[in-house]
Amino acid sequence: MGGMDAPVCRTRQEDEVNVVGRVVGRIRDFIYRQKHNYRVCAARFSANKFLAGLTSQYNAIYTVGLGADSVQLGSLSSVGGAITALISAPVGWLMDRHGIKRFFLLAVVLTAGGSLLYALAPDWRFLVAAAILASIAVGLSNTACRVICADSVQSKDRVTAQNVCSTLAAIAGMISPLAGAYLVTVFGGITVEGIRPLYYLQFAGYGLVFLLVVAQLREPQQGQFAAAEAGFGFIADFHHLFEGRGDLRRWIAISALTSFPMALF
């Protein structure tokens, strides 16, 4: 019986390998079927997830190690959330008029600047500036990614494209904490000085991402068209956007209400 079971097990394993191979092949074919900018954006998103994951589990420990208490630790998150909320609408308006690529690059520069401030910080107060830079960068990059995806992917592929991008980023985000834990061990353990080198590595990684975006990202056609149609002013343009669009106003209200509980964690 044991001799008969072995071929069956091998067959099952081969079938599982074949299934995985077909899935990977379909994902690869899907990615290469999209426009060049989608692939650049997906690579940038995955790289960002990996780099952020190197330090995400140590940020609070590092901040407390630099002298912050629980209230001050919470204030950093609050400052970041407030900045993101304030800039979201103006950022979209500015991108419509001045193009996407320059703001995408600015997001990478600000993110790298935040990492460098973390690496150099002698005191937790320096991290307030880092939180502000990181929050502005999140607002810029999230808006730019949505526009690039809309410009680069056909409507029928849009949901799949978002899920593929999220899957690749999740894989990168799953690997990076393990790499971060190994590096912290090498650098001396879970102390301020053991964690600090991670931020230098993060800064260098964002430098590579900047070079990728400079060399490979092309200005989306949607961004070029919007820039050519410069509007009548920030307030007037938003009044025109919401005028007669009750569904849009309800969608924004629902999104805001659903995002609030998530921001508490």
What do you see in this structure?
With 265 residues, the protein is mainly alpha-helical. It has 2 domains: 35-230, MFS general substrate transporter like domains (Growth Hormone, Chain: A, Up-down Bundle); 231-265. The protein is 85% helix and 0% strand. The protein is built from 11 helices and no strands. α2 runs antiparallel to α8 and α5 (101-120) packs antiparallel against α6.
What layout of secondary structure does this protein have?
Blueprint lengths: L1 H32 L2 H20 L3 H7 L4 H29 L2 H20 L5 H27 L5 H30 L4 H25 L4 H8 L5 H9 L3 H18 L2
Helix pairs in contact: 2-6, 2-7, 2-8, 4-6, 4-9, 5-6, 5-8, 7-8
Largest sheet: none
CATH architecture of the largest domain: Up-down Bundle
Classified in CATH, the superfamily of the largest domain is MFS general substrate transporter like domains
* Protein structure class: mainly alpha
Contiguous runs where pLDDT drops below 50 for at least 5 residues: 223-232
Q: What is the helix/strand order?
A: HHHHHHHHHHH
Average pLDDT number: 79
Total number of strands: 0
Helix coverage percent of residues?
over 70%
Radius of gyration equals 22 Å
Shape: globular
Approximate strand percentage: under 5%
What's the end-to-end separation, in Å?
A: 54 Å
CATH domain topology of the largest domain = Growth Hormone, Chain: A
Number of domains: 2
